[in-house]
Amino acid sequence: MIRLGAVGDVVRTLPAVSALRAGYPHARLTWVVEPASAALVEAQPWVDEVLVFPRPKLAERLEAREFGPLWSDFRAFVARLRAARFDLVVDFHSIMKSGLLALASGAPLRLGYARPYGREASWVLANEHARLVPERCSRFVRNEALVEHLGLGVKADPAPLRVPSETTAKMRSQLGGERPVVLHPGTSDGTPYKRWTPEGYAKVAAALAERPGVPVLVTAGPARDDRELAAAIVEASGGAARHAPETGSLLDLAALFQESQLYVGSDTGPMHVSSLVGTPVVQILGPTDPVENRPFGATPSRSVRVPVACSPCRRGCSAATCIRMVSPDRVIAAARELLSDRP
User: Fold this and answer.
1) pTM for this entry
2) Under 8 Å CB-to-CB from 128, ≥6 apart: which residues?
3) Angstrom distance (rounded) from CA 229 to CA 80
4) 17 and 135 part of one domain
5) Is residue 199 located within the same domain as residue 137?
6) Which domain holds residue 124?
7) Which of 7, 14, 164, 343 is the most buried (most CB within 10 A)?
8) Are strands 109-113 and 128-130 parallel, antiparallel or unpaired?
9) From CA 155, how far away is CA 168, in angstroms rounded?
10) What is the dihedral of CA 96, 97, 100, 105, to 10 degrees?
11) Per residue of the chain (343 residues), what is the pLDDT tens digit?
12) Half-sphere exposure of 65 toward its Cβ, with a 13 Å CA cutoff?
């Protein structure tokens, strides 16, 4: 299997991979992934082996014009691919880079998407193509369509992201038995237009903290912007919210979400992690497509957005009018609705 790219794209492939395991219970399943998501993928019982594609290292070599070492590193990775002697490659990414890796593996059967989901002429490198109908669907449905194309007659596992018990126990201890609501305001550095306002999050925290037994925690990634945003929300909430425990890895973050009553945040990889561990989510949407990016269907969720004329779009803009127009009252109502369904 090949699914490179951002954390959100990788985790949304997990249900399809769990279905592959059900369809091929005795096969050896290997996942080609990039370093950022490798540890989380390695922890999943559906996967036997992880091959880490060294994209950051190759990019550094290219920027430094170290063409000899770059070619040597790439050849070493391809040699590992070919040595595995794969029978089938399922290319969930279906771009030129993943298509070339599938071709380099030497596998006789290479399954990818037909156009338009097969991009950058990747369909030329595949010799089996899945055509999706309807063409506009969620990433979860899109990924599972590749498995359905194989005719296996299986479904995704209802809990497609597993957190190791020791990681869960450690987080449970850090939380002291609390079952919080988690606010995750940050997004990737390249998508600041997905970020809702700190004032909005602070109002949500103040409203939800009025409910007995609902502590409100704010998470932050390692980036300075994330930490500053979290600090601004904690301060503006007037004591209603506090900082979440440190999460040094994606698995730690998944454990925190698993121990929480509710997740509130933008369209990010962590939001999909929360939905995949079964924690209900309130998804605050700006320019991103509400159909393609909806949370995992087996988990209760609410999406809050303002359908302005230019939304959805793929690039976003500095004005970010669509997400700034989302009112705290709507987010609070969605959160209370989901919390009322929780024991």
Assistant:
1) 0.91
2) 109, 110, 111, 112, 149
3) 42
4) yes
5) no
6) 7-149
7) 14
8) parallel
9) 26
10) -140
11) 999 988 999 999 999 999 999 999 999 999 999 999 999 999 999 999 999 999 989 999 899 899 899 999 999 999 999 999 999 999 999 999 999 999 999 999 999 999 888 899 898 999 999 988 777 889 999 999 999 999 998 999 988 999 999 999 999 999 998 999 999 998 887 888 889 999 999 999 999 998 887 899 999 877 788 889 999 999 999 989 999 998 989 999 999 999 999 999 998 999 999 999 999 999 999 888 889 999 999 999 999 998 887 777 777 777 778 888 999 999 999 999 999 865 4
12) 0
Tokens of 291: 């159909």
Q: What is the CATH number of the domain that holds 94?
A: 3.40.50.2000
Q: Using CA atoms, how far apart are residues 331 and 199, in angstroms rounded to an integer?
A: 13
Same domain for 233 and 139, yes or no, is: no
Residues 140 and 251 in one domain: no
Tell me, yes or no, whether 219 lies in a domain.
yes
Which residues are CB-neighbours of 223 under 8 A, at least 6 positions away?
A: 186, 189
Provide the number of structural domains found in the chain. 2
CB 63 within 8 A of CB 34: no
- The angle at the Cα of 316, spanning 315 to 321, to the nearest 5 degrees, equals 160
Please check whether residue 231 lies inside any domain of the structure: yes
For every residue of 243-257, which 3-state class applies, written as one string? ECCCCCCHHHHHHHH
Q: How many CB atoms lie within 10 A of CB 299?
A: 18
- 335 and 309 assigned to the same domain: yes
Examine the domain organization and report whether 260 and 125 are in the same domain.
no
Which 3 state secondary structure label does DSSP give 265?
strand
Are 273 and 265 spatial neighbours (Cβ–Cβ below 8 Å)?
A: no
Cβ atoms of residues 209 and 241 within 8 Å? yes
